[in-house]
Recover the amino acids of this structure.
């Protein structure tokens, strides 16, 4: 194989369950546990693995569900339709995502990686538990437009799924909880930790070029107050000065908290694999990293919730960055691309 994946998963072959014959007389397959190995340059995870320990069969079931159009009313729009691996599980062809019957959503599909480390989910933090996030795309009219009860009926009558649920969970009952747990097992294992930057951070004999390193230093001083730490997010909600889109009137975090002081605040996104996750921002309004950097110097608009870090001492708005510095920051951002993750066939549809 051309790309040798970074091994973060160690399989421990425990043969428990092999003797259990369930009601159908079906002997579930052996189901080894998957161990989530935290990369040495990463923080602790937030996902409680004890409540849903990933197993080989649970992961396989989650992956099958992730790529299956049965989860949508039209039988076509799977999770993987909007979350495409080669773009770090984002979607490109439309600025905001589009779902069943070509309906256009108002937000840009987020990348899926390192979600085991996140405290809450979506651009406004509408879900504070990964397993419960999935109900949003499944039921949203402009996404999968389906009900959980319908999905359960479809899966129960499928020739393969009941057996796969039995392999993963011990018996063939298809429940909402099991669907969500399996999806979480798949998504939790998606750790992206093998970019050039990671290897440099872990001192794995990888050097950043002089320009990339200069970009890193600039990033640390201009951006890392929000895009903080190894994950490049402090996981807070902030208004970074994007003018409000008059069509969508997306107030972001305020939608969740109801608080006017949260108006137009969005989750500070991780910038891992950012080279692949264009278009950028919650509504995909910028196509390139150059556009994003130009926005931070020249495009920031004033509002009552604008983050104070984007207001200069002389009251002018935006960050002070030269064109040459922008080039270096972008070179640094590209060191966050993790091709091992993008090409890791554990997460691929085929
Ligand atoms: C129609 C496109 C579409 C489909 C289908 C879709 N998603 Fe998403 N996904 C999005 C968008 C858009 C967001 C951002 C939502 C928001 O901020 O309100 C998102 C956000 C997420 C997040 C949160 C990521 C984060 O960093 O917080 C997860 C997890 C996720 N999706 C998983 C799934 C799963 C699992 C499925 C299938 C059950 C799925 N998505 C189906 C478009 C889609
Ligand atoms: C005051 C906090 C703050 C600072 C400082 C900041 N950002 Fe951001 N950044 C955000 C927030 C919040 C968002 C999401 C905004 C949205 O979508 O509404 C964001 C979004 C982005 C995105 C889009 C990512 C995506 O997945 O769509 C990029 C790229 C980005 N910032 C790069 C930078 C760079 C480079 C710097 C430094 C030059 C920087 N940011 C400084 C808060 C900040």
């Amino acid at each position: 194989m051309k790309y040798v994946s970074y091994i973060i998963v160690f399989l421990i072959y425990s043969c428990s369950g092999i003797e259990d014959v369930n009601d159908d007389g079906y002997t579930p397959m052996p189901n080894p546990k998957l161990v989530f190995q935290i990369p040495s340059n990463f923080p602790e995870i937030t996902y409680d693995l004890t409540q849903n320990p990933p197993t080989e069969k649970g992961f396989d079931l989650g992956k099958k569900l992730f790529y299956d159009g049965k989860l949508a009313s039209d039988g076509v729009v799977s999770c993987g339709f909007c979350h495409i691996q080669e773009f770090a599980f984002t979607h490109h062809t439309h600025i905001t995502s589009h779902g069943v019957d070509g309906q256009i959503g108002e937000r840009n599909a987020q990348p899926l990686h390192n979600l085991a480390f996140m405290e809450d989910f979506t651009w406004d933090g509408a879900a504070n538990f990964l397993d419960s996030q999935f109900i949003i795309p499944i039921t949203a009219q402009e996404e999968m437009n389906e009900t959980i009860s319908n999905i359960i009926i479809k899966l129960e009558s499928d020739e393969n799924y009941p057996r796969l649920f039995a392999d993963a969970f011990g018996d063939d009952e298809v429940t909402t909880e099991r669907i969500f747990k399996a999806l979480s097992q798949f998504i939790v294992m998606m750790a992206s930790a093998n970019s050039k930057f990671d290897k440099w951070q872990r001192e794995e004999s990888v050097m950043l070029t002089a320009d990339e390193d200069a970009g890193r230093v600039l990033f640390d001083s201009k951006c890392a107050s929000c895009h903080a730490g190894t994950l490049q997010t402090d996981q807070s909600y902030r208004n970074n000065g994007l003018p409000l889109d008059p069509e969508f009137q997306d107030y972001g975090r305020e939608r969740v908290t109801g608080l006017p002081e949260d108006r137009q605040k969005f989750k500070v996104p991780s910038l891992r694999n950012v080279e692949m996750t264009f278009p950028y921002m919650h509504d995909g309004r910028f196509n390139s990293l150059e556009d994003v950097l130009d926005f931070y110097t020249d495009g920031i608009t004033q509002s009552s919730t604008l983050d104070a870090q984007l207001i200069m001492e002389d009251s002018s708005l935006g960050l002070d960055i030269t064109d040459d510095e922008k080039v270096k920051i972008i070179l640094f951002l590209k060191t966050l691309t993790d091709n091992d993750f993008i090409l890791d066939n554990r997460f691929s549809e085929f």
